[in-house]
Design a protein that fits this description.
The chain is α+β, with helices and mostly antiparallel strands. The chain has one helix at residues 24-37, and strands at 4-5, 12-13. The chain has a domain at 4-36. The longest helix has 14 residues, at 24-37. The chain binds zinc ion (ZN). Zinc ion binds next to loops.
Length: 61
């Protein structure tokens, strides 16, 4: 088995389930980063508060 390195937390892992991340949580982290960093869609009214309260992740193994 090949080990991969999670781009979010840097952990080595072998699971392909959430690739390229080690876990759902890291996939979520990357997604939210991507969404926040790439908010450049023109013509979209900023009528929604971009505030999402941090939710606890029960799947923390
Ligand atoms: Zn990770």
């Amino acid at each position: 088995m090949k080990k991969k390195k999670c781009p979010v937390c840097g952990a080595l892992f072998v699971s392909d389930e959430f690739k390229p991340f080690c876990s759902k949580r890291c996939a979520d982290v990357d997604l939210s980063r991507w969404l926040k960093g790439g908010y450049s869609i023109p013509g979209r009214p900023a009528d929604q508060a971009d505030e999402v309260p941090g939710r606890p992740d029960p799947s923390d193994a």
